[in-house]
From TrEMBL:
Protein's name in the database: Zinc-binding dehydrogenase
UniProt organism field: Salibaculum griseiflavum
Methyltransferase among keywords: no
Listed GO MF terms: oxidoreductase activity
SMART domains found in the cross-reference section: PKS_ER
Record keyword DNA-binding present: no
Source taxon at top rank: Bacteria
Length: 324
């Protein structure tokens, strides 16, 4: 099969290699998927760049990308799945040598989730990380109906799904963005430009001085002070990144005296029952056509390096997806 891989960390154009590899075979409990779309996430880019703290090559050769979608073309012993079933993949490369940046991938059957017929493969390649992270950040700590949710960074891949899912779940959504164009992209009705506005003041105004019940947060370090001011007593802040300050100083007592729950989440490690719940909810929304997906075409396998650079630059609105 054709695949893209790297054998050392470094700039995408220098270390990503397109070549031929032996076809993987599905082991017991696995399915073999012909990949039709491969999603590129910041996490894939950071791994390849060696940007994770204390990073070492996890395997001598890594085929990147955890998200993808395609069709089952073979099954391992005892796997009751149909050949031809359309699926989306989660954790394709997470702690594994072979991800979705290849024509074929063998994964444990549960990591290939049925993709409704009405959802395209490119859209399916946005579900594993962006959509599931949004769902988990919103729903890990109980129902959100009738609550006010602040989604920081509503134009990001996760943030945009979070805005939609919060509204679909019956919450009032306020988001922060860096321009009116990004506000429109987020789809949220209520927004604040975090670059030129005092977010605390603006959100307090919008909420009549009450603050918010939940925060889905894209940058813990950058937003800690505003989030602390805005979260209601007993509220929950679910942070999925802190890229601007990877070791922020935690305001422990101010959070404690508001009885705040801080959730630092990593989507790769969802426990099975929670993940099933999230998958069921995504499937229901997908079948109803309730979710809008922002797909940015990244080209094909030969364009993988450019796609990585595009994700690293942040200069894109949506998930960069390679089509195979
Ligand atoms: N923990 C997990 O499981 C998990 C899952 C998914 C992603 N992540 C991480 O989350 C981060 C974002 O991923 P992504 O795919 O959503 O990236 P993305 O599509 O590039 O979006 C990032 C968004 O965050 C916004 N932003 C940045 N700083 C902000 C701030 N201080 N306040 C409000 N908004 C801010 C940006 O807005 P502007 O460009 O307009 O400033 C941009 O819209 C990455 O570091 C990624 O690795 C973690």
């Amino acid at each position: 099969m054709k695949a893209v891989w790297f054998e050392r960390f470094g700039p995408a154009a220098e270390v990503l290699i397109l070549g031929d590899m032996p076809d993987p075979k599905p082991g017991p409990g696995e399915v073999l998927v012909r990949v039709r779309a491969s999603g590129v996430n910041p996490s894939d880019v950071k791994l390849r760049a060696g940007a994770r703290p204390g990073a070492e090559m996890p395997f001598p050769r890594v085929v990147p990308h955890s998200d993808g979608a395609g069709e089952i073309v073979a099954v391992g012993k005892g796997v009751p799945r149909e050949i031809g079933e359309r699926v989306w993949i989660w954790n394709g490369q997470w702690q594994r040598a072979q991800g979705t940046c290849a024509e074929l991938i063998a994964v444990p059957s549960e990591q290939a989730v049925r993709l409704p017929d009405s959802t395209g493969f490119e859209e399916g390649a946005c579900l594993g990380i962006p959509a599931m992270t949004a769902w988990y950040a919103l729903h890990a700590d109980g129902p959100i109906a009738d609550q006010t949710v602040l989604v920081t960074g509503g134009a990001g891949t996760v943030g945009r799904y979070a805005c939609q899912m919060a509204a679909l779940s019956g919450a009032r959504v306020i988001t922060t963005v860096s321009s009116a164009m990004k506000a429109a992209h987020s789809g949220a009705q209520e927004w604040v430009n975090y670059r030129d506005t005092d977010v605390t003041e603006a959100v307090m105004d919008l909420t009549g001085g009450q603050g918010v019940d939940r925060i889905v947060d894209v940058d813990f370090g950058a937003n800690q002070a505003a989030n602390l001011a805005l979260i209601k007593p007993g509220g929950t802040i679910a942070s999925y990144a802190s890229a601007s300050d990877m070791a922020p100083t935690l305001q422990f007592y101010p959070f404690m005296f508001k009885n705040v729950t801080l959730r630092m989440l990593i989507i790769y490690l969802l426990e099975a029952e929670t993940r099933r719940r999230g998958e069921a909810q995504l499937t229901e929304w997908l079948e109803k056509g309730a979710l809008s997906h922002a797909v940015v075409s990244g080209g094909g396998l030969p364009d993988a390096a450019r796609a990585h650079d595009r994700v690293a630059s942040g200069e894109k609105l949506g998930s960069v997806v390679l089509s195979l």
